[in-house]
Design goal:
Length: about 400
C-alpha cells in the first residue's frame, strides 16, 4: 500500500503566490484583502474541476490585522474572490509563522475527517500596515500620544514584560550571533547566495508555475532580488543595530507585501480537485523558547516534525527555511548539522522577501515543488517566529513515496 492509499492523510495538491513586492514598492497600492483574494481566485482557476462549494474552509495566516485586512482577512478573501458565501473563512495569527500554522491546522482538519478540501493561505501588506494610537483613558488627555507602526515588531508593550524579552528583532539576532559565533562573513556569503539562487531559479523558470500576477500591477517577479549581489558588496554595508554589530540591511530579510496559498486535500479529494496530489504532510512540529532566542526555535520544531514523520535528517533531501536573518538561518543549519547546499536551493527570504503572514505558505509550497522537480522524497519547511517560537512541516513527495 503506497502513501497515497493510506487514510486519513493530508496532501498538498497545489501552491501559488503573488510576486513579493518591496516596502513602498509595486504592491504598495494594493490592499491586503485584495492580495488575499488574488491567491484564492488563482487556486480555484488552476483547478477548474474544483467546485467552489466543495471547498470546506479557507484559512489565512496574518501577522497584523489592524487595518484594511479587517481582522478576519480569511473571510474577506472568500467574499472578494467570489466564492459562495457558504464557504467559511478564518484567520490565524502566529506572527511570521501564521500561514504555516494555517496549513498545519488545515492538514489536521483533513486528517480528522472534518474537511476534504482546504485552502490554507497567508497575506501581509507591511507597506499599508497602519499606525495606531493607544486609546486615551479620558476624552481630552493633556499629554502627547505617540503613534506606533504596526508593520513589524513589538508595539504597546506591557510594562510587566521583562526587558530582555522585548529587545528588537535585530538586537535579538545580534545576541544569537554572539551565542553561536556566527561571523559577519558567513552571514554575507549566505545572503549573497540567497540572491544568486533566487535569480537563477527565476531565470530557469522554476517560479513560473508558482507565481501569479496581481491585477493592475506591473510586477512579474519578486521585487527585492539583486542578481549582482556578492559577499564583497554586502561587506561594505554598515551594521544597523549595533555600531560593531554583524547585521545589516543586506543580510536580513526586508519588509514586503504579498500573499501565498496552498491547496490541501484528502486522498479522496483527488476526484473533487481534478488533479493528483504533489506531497503528503508527514509530520508537524512546534517549539517555543525565550522570546529573544526566537531565531533558533526552528531547530527543535523541525526535529519534532521529523520524529513524528518517523525519519531522520539523513533522509531529508531539501529544506526550505525562512530567512528572517542570515545569522538565525545559519544557526539553525549548524544546529541540524546538515549540508547547507540542500537549504533554500531556489533562494530564500533575504532575496525573495518576507511579508510576515505570507511566508509560511510560501516555504511550504516551494518545498513541494522542489521535491517534485528534483525528485526528492523527503523535505522540511521551517520558520522562526518572533517572541520565541518556531514551526516545521515534513513533506513526502508522493511520486517517490515507498510502499
Amino acid at each position: 500500500m503506497t502513501a497515497i492509499d493510506r487514510d486519513p492523510v493530508a496532501f498538498v495538491y497545489d501552491a501559488v503566490r503573488t510576486p513579493f513586492g518591496r516596502f513602498n514598492g509595486a504592491l504598495a497600492g494594493t490592499r491586503p484583502d485584495d492580495l488575499a483574494a488574488t491567491v484564492v481566485r488563482a487556486v480555484m482557476e488552476r483547478s477548474p474541476n474544483l467546485a467552489p462549494d466543495d471547498v470546506d474552509e479557507v484559512t489565512f495566516g496574518l501577522a497584523n490585522g489592524a487595518g484594511e485586512d479587517n481582522r478576519n482577512v480569511g473571510r474577506m478573501a472568500v467574499l472578494l474572490a467570489g466564492l459562495p458565501t457558504s464557504v467559511p473563512g478564518s484567520t490565524v495569527n502566529r506572527l511570521c509563522g501564521s500561514s504555516l500554522d494555517a496549513a498545519m491546522g488545515a492538514s489536521r482538519q483533513i486528517e480528522t475527517g472534518d474537511a476534504d478540501v482546504v485552502i490554507a493561505a497567508g497575506v501581509e501588506s507591511m507597506t499599508r500596515a497602519p499606525w495606531v494610537l493607544p486609546k486615551p483613558d479620558r476624552a481630552f488627555p493633556v499629554a502627547n500620544v505617540t503613534a506606533v507602526s504596526t508593520a513589524l515588531g513589538w508595539r504597546l508593550v506591557n510594562d510587566r514584560m521583562p526587558a530582555e524579552w522585548t529587545v528588537s528583532l535585530g538586537e535579538a539576532n545580534e545576541m544569537l550571533a554572539e551565542k553561536f559565533g556566527v561571523s559577519r562573513e558567513r552571514q554575507d556569503e549566505f545572503s549573497a547566495r540567497s540572491h544568486q539562487r533566487a535569480d537563477t531559479a527565476w531565470n530557469d523558470g522554476f517560479y513560473d508555475g508558482l507565481v501569479v500576477g496581481v491585477d493592475g500591477v506591473d510586477l512579474t517577479r519578486d521585487e527585492g532580488i539583486r542578481p549582482g549581489s556578492t559577499a564583497e558588496k554586502l561587506a561594505a554595508l554598515k551594521p544597523v543595530f549595533r555600531r560593531d554589530g554583524t547585521i545589516t540591511a543586506g543580510n536580513a530579510s526586508p519588509l514586503n507585501d504579498g500573499a501565498s496559498a496552498v491547496l490541501l486535500g484528502s486522498a479522496s479529494a483527488t476526484d473533487l480537485i481534478g488533479r493528483e496530489p504533489v506531497a503528503r504532510v508527514a509530520g508537524r512540529g512546534a517549539f517555543a523558547l525565550d522570546p529573544q532566542d526566537f531565531g533558533y526555535a526552528p531547530v527543535e520544531a523541525a526535529n519534532r516534525a521529523l520524529a513524528r514523520a518517523g525519519i531522520g535528517w539523513s533522509d531529508v533531501g531539501a529544506v526550505e527555511l525562512n530567512e528572517a536573518f542570515a545569522v538565525q538561518s545559519l544557526a539553525c543549519v549548524d544546529g541540524w548539522k546538515i549540508d547547507p547546499d540542500i537549504v533554500n536551493t531556489r533562494g530564500g527570504a533575504i532575496a525573495i522577501g518576507h511579508p510576515l503572514g505570507a511566508s509560511g505558505a510560501r516555504v511550504l509550497g516551494t518545498l513541494a515543488e522542489v521535491l517534485r522537480r528534483d525528485r526528492l522524497r523527503w523535505g522540511v519547511a521551517a520558520i522562526c517566529i518572533g517572541v520565541g517560537q518556531g514551526l516545521a512541516v515534513v513533506l513526502e513527495n508522493v511520486s517517490s513515496a515507498g510502499a
